[in-house]
Amino acid sequence: MAAALIGAAVLAAGSLAGIGPAEANAPGHPGIPSPPTTVFTEDFENGQGAAVTTLPDYTGAAPLAETYTADPAWLTSCNGLLVSEQAPASPPSGVYCGSYWAANKQMAAALGTWAGGDATTNHSLTAYTSGDPGAGRTELQTVRPIPLSSDSRFLTFSVDAAAQNCFANHPLLAFYLLDAGSARAAFSSPIDPCQNPGTVIGGTSVGTYASNGSVLFTGDSAGIRLVNEQASGGGNDGAIDNVRLLDATPQLDQGFGPTQLPVGAPTTLTFTITNTSELAAKDGWSFTARLPAGLRLDGGSAATSCGSGTATADAANGSVTVRGDLGAGQQDCTATVRVTSITGGTYQVCGSAITDAVGLDLPGCASVTFTAPVFDARSHGVRLTSPLLGIGPLAASAHSCTPLPGDDSHSVLSAGLGSLGGLGVLTTDASGTVDADGARTAAAHAQVSGINLLGGLISADLVGTSAQARQPLTGTGPGAITLTGATALTNLRVAGVAVAADTAPNTTIGLPLVGSLVVNQQTTIAGGKGITVTALSLTLLTGVHVTIAQSTAALLTTTDTCPAS
Ligand SMILES: [Ca+2]
Ligand SMILES: [Ca+2]
């Protein structure tokens, strides 16, 4: 492709040169190119009337008041003239245009029509080459540096161009950026206005063309040089208007897919580098994205579709570095990396987390939510259900209804239970932990010493319980829950009879005329996601219910009721 043709609607012709901040794209539309931003325009209209002006005598609009120079070959032989249809019937004296003077005016008019302006009054820089100009000579070059507002931008050019006699040699327009004295090419092949014109008006091909390359520019000012690479004056009959210096910096976007998933499951973080709509090549952009703590990078997962691209993920410091090229005509390319979280939560990445961005506009924010199992760990030294006694839970610990790890523990030296009796030391703890591999454990322990109830009917040196719910993390999310419960009994005696330390779960001992006692009570809760273990569960005929050393551990989902029952 010799040059990218871009529609006039995309780049409306400005009537004045504009020098503004270089903010090309807005994030949020990955893969949809935005128009480049015009940094500078020359329309050759400042102070112009019917008279013909030579290029070196022209001064552009304020504030820059740009002036121009050219190689002598492009300032003679019917070249280097600012012409409109209103120009006099004959060319200025000393300018040899042969019988083609009217054709110069036709090209200016056609360019005016193409740009949506006035065909009669529009001026363009015409060059009908009544002699051979020689190859590689400068047809136009800025004299005053054009200030740039920011570093590390991709700059390119567009121009409205007209040509006649395309059956003969074509004008070949090559744009260079002048960077502190050196000329840097913004093309790989020059613009040929005879190829793929926007339209043909009365035999004149016209269109808006962009360079097919660009320059990654770091200086604070730039110059423009237009070289016509066509050596022959046989044909090579053209005119230009609306020379534009464009900020054509690609847009970086980022997004997660999926955006909601369980802990441990992978989501893909996609970086999309979207070209600007002139689709010039953009070589050598790069960036590093730093992920928030809590997100885990799959270090081997980084990949990119970008030309000459490299994508590397550093799992240890949570960063992704991508560099590459957009080829001429390429709309976008992507880099991807797989990410997960073990602790859960919502994580946001924003443009502020992009460091070392070169030749890219920063992305907006994107977020992903990892849903983690909810801890429900609780333990009680003693609980009484009795409106008459009015004694609540004693020595309770809880780490419940949160996906975050943590623990809680308590100790009470003694507890009086009124007419029921008394207890010695009560200790409880409850915790939720997340292992390095993401496995979760909800655990609870309760222990009570010195038990003496109902005047010695029930006594023990020590009873205790433990409950645990454990859930490994798989590559697709939380795995199956394993429940563990245990009761410890030291010297438990009921009505004078010793109770075995390894009493089977849910063993009921009748207490004639008093009630009943369940030893080592184990109950599955929350649909199999948890377990409650109670050392002694005493129900009296009076309606009083007492539990001693009760531990509960469960791992719930966010839609379960918490605490579980
Ligand atoms: Ca013009
Ligand atoms: Ca010619």
Brief summary of the model shown:
The chain is mainly beta. The protein is built from one helix and 45 strands.
Description:
This protein has 565 residues and is mainly beta. Strand 12 and strand 13 form a beta hairpin. It has one helix and 45 strands. 2% of the residues lie in helices and 50% in strands. The chain has three domains: 4-247, Jelly Rolls (Sandwich); 251-371, Immunoglobulin-like (Sandwich); 374-556, no CATH class. The strands form eight sheets. Strands 1, 2, 3, 5, 6, 9, 12, 13, 14 and 16 form a ten-stranded antiparallel β-sheet that branches. Strands 31, 32, 33, 34, 35, 36, 39, 40 and 41 form a nine-stranded antiparallel β-sheet that branches. One calcium ion binds next to loops. Keywords: Signal. This is Choice-of-anchor P family protein. It holds the Pfam family DUF7933.
Average predicted local confidence, pLDDT: 93
Q: Give the CATH level 1 class of the largest domain.
A: Mainly Beta
Shape: rod-shaped
State the total count of DSSP E strands: 45
Query: What do we call the CATH homologous superfamily of the largest domain?
Result: Galactose-binding domain-like
Strand content: over 45%
Based on helices, strands and strand pairing, what is the structural class? Answer: mainly beta
Write down the CATH topology of the largest domain.
Jelly Rolls
Rounded radius of gyration (Å):
41 Å
Terminus-to-terminus distance? 71 Å
Largest sheet: 10 strands, antiparallel
| CATH architecture classification of the largest domain | Sandwich
Bound chemical compounds? calcium ion
Low-confidence stretches at least 5 residues in length (pLDDT < 50)?
A: 1-24
Count of all domains: 3
Number of helices: 1
Range of helix content:
under 10%
